[in-house]
Amino acid sequence: MFDLDNWNEIWATITRNKLRSVLTGFGVFWGLFMLVILIGMGNAFQGGLSKNFDGFATNSCFFHTGQTSESYKGYRKGRWWNITNRDVELIRQRANTVDLISPMLFGGGGDKNVLRGRKSGSYGYRGVYADHFRVEQMHLLKGRVINELDNQEARKVCVIGKTVYETLFDIDEDPVGQFIRLNGIYFQVIGVISPKSNASIGGRPEENVFIPFRTMQLAFNQGETVHFLACTAKEGIAVSAVEDQVSSIIKTANNISPTDTRALRTFNIEKQFMLFHNLFLGVDFLIWIVGIGALMSGVIGISNIMMVTVRERTREIGVRRAIGAKPRSIVLQIVSESFVLTAISGVFGFIFGVLVLEGISSAMSITPSSGQDGSFFVEPFISFKVATISIVILIVAGIASGMMPAYRALKIKAIDAIRDE
Asked: What b/e readout covers 98-117, taking b as 16+ CB neighbours within 10 angstroms?
């Protein structure tokens, strides 16, 4: 960037005006420090929000019934109805946009409704298909999850949440193959799970017992009822297309008005992720605007101080021009001085910012619940890509801060400079 032969002269100029250099460089130091801190905390915020939905299929949508709000085909409004097994089969046959289909049933937790020997607890339970664990992904701690054969044969097996396991079993005891009693019916434990996401469907998974969907319909006299339905879109298809097609199939099969928005409630995960994506873009934009603004204020300060330096060295520059110094050497000297001052201040600001983020990360890692239980923050960090961009901005800013003073130095005429007092 600058001529090494002039290094001593550049450094001497900076150190000659120590106080002025420190005060001017502090603006760049603070600007880059703030940029690093803002980016790191922005990443922590984005990571926290994303973590709350980690594990949910981003191409999924959900359906559940409500009370009709319109009369249709002889049916009066205010009718209660249910999705049924027949609707699930119709969706399989007609919905060419759908990849996975996972109907669900929910059971409330009565008082001490889950028992094993003398140990008991009050927990909810769900009837699910095997595909449920692809829509709402889980950490498998022991054994396996429910498969298609379990559902087809209506096996009395179950997958229990981590909290249920800790209540009914001793530490390090293997629950797989053992039996628990759920609402008076015995089920064999085949696995233990814990959730990946802080968001959940029908209660916290770690506090639930999962049984095959068909088993729950038969064992608990649920008939053909479906309480909740999850669907995912095929690759390359928008979730909104699935939402519209499945809604149309269900409404037609159950004599629901196509315009009745209250009879069938839907929830589109893709839309939620798009909202978060747009929010993140806005946060990133604001962070970069504020951070670069703070950095530019420091750069402007350096540019101003270099203008003062050029004015103070008018006679020196004029003499150098008179004895044959090329314009290139004058420009390089001024730009090099501003670049060195900017680089030193910026690098210290960057390092200090990274150290502060590391301190915050270390403090958060001591707390076991950081980034969990619905927290909106994870440990702050700054990526290598962003660090590289920050350094490039610093280099460009350092060069830019010296261009105006250098241009002014070139405008100085040798005869006027020699006469200057």
From this structure: bbbbbbbbbbebeeebbbbe
Q: Where is 282: in which H helix or E strand?
A: helix 269-312
DSSP calls for 154-201: T--EEEEEHHHHHHHS-TT---TT-EEEETTEEEEEEEEEEES-S--S
Rounded Cα–Cα distance for residues 9 and 106 (Å): 79
Strand bridging mode 83-84 / 60-65: unpaired
Phi/psi class of residue 235: alpha, beta or left (left: φ > 0; alpha: ψ in -120 to 50)? beta
DSSP per position, 95-118: -TTEEEEEEEEEE---TT-EEETT
pLDDT of residue 4: 47
Q: Could you give the CA distance from residue 99 to residue 192 in angstroms, rounded to a whole number?
A: 27
pLDDT exceeds cutoff 80 at 398: no
Do 23 and 234 touch, CB atoms closer than 8 A? no
pLDDT above 90 coverage of the chain, percent: 37
What radius of gyration do the chain's Cα atoms show?
34
Helix (H, G, I), strand (E, B) or coil at 195: strand
pLDDT digits (tens, 9 = 90+) for 339-381: 777 778 888 888 888 898 888 888 877 665 444 444 567 788 8
Whether 184 and 120 have beta carbons less than 8 Å apart is answered as no
Q: Is 265 helix (H, G, I), strand (E, B) or coil?
A: strand
Residues 6+ apart with CB under 8 A from 121: 112, 114, 164, 167, 168
Looking at residue 375, its pLDDT comes to 59
Report which DSSP code applies to 4: G
Contact 367, 307 (CB under 8 A): no
Distance between CA atoms of residues 66 and 86, nearest Å: 18
Contact 209, 182 (CB under 8 A): yes
Give Cα 351 to chain centroid, integer Å: 25
Query: What type of residue is 403?
Result: M
Euclidean distance between CA atoms 184 and 287, whole angstroms: 57
Residues 6+ apart with CB under 8 A from 331: 406, 409, 410
Strands of 196-336 (E only): list them: 208-212, 225-226, 228-233, 264-268
Residue 256's closest CA among 66, 86, 63, 68? 68
- Does residue 177 sit in helix, strand or coil? coil
Please give the Cα distance from 60 to 225 (Å, whole number): 21
In this structure, what DSSP letter does residue 136 have? B
